[in-house]
Description:
Layout: E1 2-12, E2 17-22, E3 27-31, E4 43-52, E5 59-70, H1 81-86, E6 92-104, E7 107-112, E8 115-121, H2 126-129, E9 136-147, E10 154-170, E11 180-181, E12 200-209, E13 214-218, E14 221-227, E15 237-247, E16 252-264, E17 271-272, E18 287-300, E19 303-310, E20 313-319, E21 334-343, E22 356-360, E23 366-370, H3 377-460, H4 473-498, H5 505-521, E24 526-530, H6 542-563, E25 567-575, E26 578-585, H7 598-610, E27 613-618, E28 624-631
Parallel strand pairs: 3-5, 8-10, 11-12, 14-16, 17-18, 20-22, 24-25
Antiparallel strand pairs: 1-2, 1-4, 2-3, 4-5, 6-7, 6-9, 7-8, 9-10, 12-13, 12-15, 13-14, 15-16, 18-19, 18-21, 19-20, 21-22, 21-23, 25-26, 26-28, 27-28
Helix pairs in contact: 3-4, 4-6, 5-6, 6-7
Amino acid sequence: MRVRGVVTDAKNSVYDRWISLQDDTRGIFVSLSTVTNQPAFGECWQVEGHSGAGDFAPVIIADKMTFIGNGRVPEPVRPTWNELVNGSRDVQWAELLGLVTAVQSNTMTLLLPEGQMDVRMDGCYESDLKHFEKSVVRIRGVLYAMWNAATREVRVGNVMMRNTSIDVDIPAPADPFDAVLKTPRELLLFDAQATAFQRVKVRGQIVYADAAQVFLEEDGAGLQLLPADKTDVRPGDVVEAVGYPAIGKTTLLLREVILRKIGASPLVAPRKLAESDLMREGLDSARVRIEGKLLGSHVEQGAPVLEMQSGAHLYLARLAPGQSSDVSLRPGSRLALEGVCLERSRSQPAAGVDSFDLLLNSPADITVLSRPSWWTLQRMLIVVGVLLVILVLALVWITQLRRLVEQRTAQLQREIRERERVEHQHVIEAERSRIARDLHDDLGSSLTEISVLASTGQHGQNNPPDPAGKAGAGDLFHTIAGKARGLIAALDVIVWAVDPEDNSLQSLADYLSGYTEEFFSHTDISCRFKVPVSFPRITLEGRVRHDLLMVVKEALNNIVRHSEATEAEFRMALSAGQLEIEIADNGKGFAGGRPDGHGLKNLSARLTKLGGNCAVESRLGSGTILKIRLPLIAGHPKASGKDKYDV
């Protein structure tokens, strides 16, 4: 690219070489890092080079510089407030007009018509700038935007001026209070001499004051004051205030105000407003009295804020900072408030005031007209909610109680049925005991008597048999005695099976052991026993004991009749809730698994009915083992007592 313009600023040092070049359109930053020329302020140069991104705005990197001659410094631009804060006038020859309110180091705080701007004066010191305080000055130079090096964002309210010159338009006043005296209403009247930096003086009574702002009222008109320094005025003080007026759409205020107290008097009576007057114009900064309903409250920056409603209008009533944050007011209370009205900006100039705040000096500006009824909608909803919760809890409790009652009823019914069953069992056992006693005492004694008589008759009639082949009297008596003894033995088994006193596993073990020993005592087979000395207290029904006896009896008969054994072994044990009985012999055995025959089939059928099983293990010449397994399950009706098992 090739550009031509006047040098508005230049820097030639070992580490930093650049110029700002400007024509009638605008200015641009030029880097001289690749050339040796040394342009000076006011000279006209032609630059040939290429563009660069720059740190904030585009720049030119010079490749060739051509001196044209002395140039004319362009007319300075007067940037608007928006152009100052958005950085669009970067590297422009510009002029700023404003009031110097403060100087710190090489930075001047400049009060412009739109607001305050911190202007950094490059190459200046505080001693060079201090005497400009309180003066209205005109600063000319190259304007640079201040920006954040990390984010490249503009620092709003900060600019820098280089190659500057400062001219004083209005010097600082010798007497701060030497200014034109006006009333707040006269500030809105025509004045040919009025400018943004014409100092005016007003007199009036302070109606509100805090650390940031003060409100003054005179002849029913209010005025907002922004003090330049801290003040100690209080509501009721009569003061003189000197400052620079600023007129907004809804506000009228003085900036950089200096206050002087000249007296004190009671606060003027506030203007009472109806609901229809709240949004009309002309109330800004005036002291008013408003009645309304308290909707709620909160705290902002340590100061209480009341949320109010008057008719259809909502607004905030703010107590001055430093007041107690504990305002004991119930929502719904009817209040009368006395304070300064601070209007909010209007969305459209002709639409009236959008909203406002009411500034209160102290809780004494609040008057309670009426308190709300305790029975509010909120409390009613709370009570209804509590009742609903109680109702739900009651329903849950009733449901749980009903369930518990049903469970307890079912438990009682089970206990009643169990008690009835036990009582019925006791009745049956008592009846069985009576039958056993009757069989033993009556039938047993009669059979024993028959056996004795038959034996006696046999000894007394020991005659030879009849030649015709008929049995003699002795043989008949012998037969009668044998039958009687057989009936007695069978009767003993029946009595043992039905007697409830023998309904225990221990009794079963003792009886089977005794029966086996007696069974083999009339044979040539010797028997060994492996039976525990004692068993747990387990009750078994008579039918179970009788069937087990029949199974054992069948097994013993098979050993005697078919095995041709000389030795046998009877084992009995209780393992994992299961009764185990094993009967083994050293007989001839058999091959092919289970032998045919009704005896073993009946044995298996009996055990299956009881819920057990049996297994036969045999080989030719190695004997036979009969294994009986009978599970004893707790709680089954077939078993009862302290330790209940079932079969």
